[in-house]
Structures are given as C-alpha cells and as structure tokens.
C-alpha cells in the first residue's frame, strides 16, 4: 500500500506505539526512503527535518525500536508503527520512556494559563 507523501511536502508523520502495552512513545517524520528502510530492516528509521538526513532510532543510544506491525490510516498519509523497545527502554532524547510527558491543562485550568500569558 502506498503512503501519500505529497500532503506534507514529501513527509508523513510516523506514530510509534509499544506493541505490548499500547503506550504512545513518540512521533517522528518519514520520507519515502525512511519508510522503505524501516520496512526492509524492521528497525524504525526517521527523516530528520533539521539535519535533512535519515537516522535510525537508537543507532547511538542502543535504544532501538524493532517494528512488529505497520499500519496506515484511511487517508494513507500517516504511519503507525507498533514496536518492541530494545536496550534500556529510553525512547525520548530526554531520557524518559515516552516523549509524551508534558500534560496540557484543560478547561478552567487552560483558561487560567492563557490569561496569565497576557
């Protein structure tokens, strides 16, 4: 199945999820070459927008992401990769397991935060 890379100028978001727990670990971007490398090797490879180069997650830290299942959404413009985390399990560059650690306020708390910024 073909991914539509044209919607985001040659890129597609790649959502990374722990296959065993369902925990959302991170989101990165892939171009066609990164997706091909990921599917061929079964290890997550992203396209770095800042370095403008491919990089395989964990190539320096050892915290690699082994793909056990790959999916696309109904629009074929986003990839979901269910992975097995190898190494110490630190997926985020900050040293935490998941990149999703910053809770955003909702409702009245969100309004208070917005008013405080003004």
The stretches of 5 or more residues where confidence is low (pLDDT under 50) are none
- Helix content estimate: 10-25%
Sheet of most strands: 4 strands, mixed
Question: What is Rg?
Answer: 16 Å
The H-and-E topology, N to C, reads as EEHEEEEH
| CATH H level, superfamily name | Phosphoribosyl-AMP cyclohydrolase
CATH 2nd-level architecture = Roll
Structural class: alpha+beta
Measured distance between first and last alpha carbons: 48 Å
* Number of helices, where a helix is a run of at least 4 consecutive DSSP H or I residues: 2
Mean pLDDT across the residues is: 93
Strand content: 25-35%
Shape: globular
Q: Explain this structure to me?
A:
This protein is an alpha+beta fold and 118 residues long. The chain has one domain (12-117): Ubiquitin-like (UB roll) (Roll), CATH 3.10.20. The chain contains 2 helices and 6 strands. The chain has helices at 32-41, 107-117, and strands spanning 12-18, 24-30, 45-48, 53-56, 65-72, 79-85. The protein has a 4-stranded mixed beta sheet, with helices on one face. It has a two-stranded antiparallel ribbon with strand order 3-4. The chain is globular and about 50 Å long. The relative contact order is 0.20.
């Amino acid at each position: 199945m073909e991914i539509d890379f044209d919607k985001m100028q040659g890129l597609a978001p790649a959502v990374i999820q722990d296959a065993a727990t369902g925990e959302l670990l991170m989101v990165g971007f892939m171009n066609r070459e990164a997706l091909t490398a990921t599917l061929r090797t079964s290890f997550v490879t992203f396209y770095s927008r800042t370095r403008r180069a491919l990089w395989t997650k964990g190539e320096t830290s050892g915290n690699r992401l082994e793909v056990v299942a790959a999916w696309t959404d109904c629009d074929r413009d986003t990839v979901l990769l269910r992975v097995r985390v190898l190494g110490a399990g630190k997926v985020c560059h900050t040293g935490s397991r998941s990149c999703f650690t910053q809770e955003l306020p909702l409702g009245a708390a969100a309004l208070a935060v917005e008013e405080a910024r003004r």
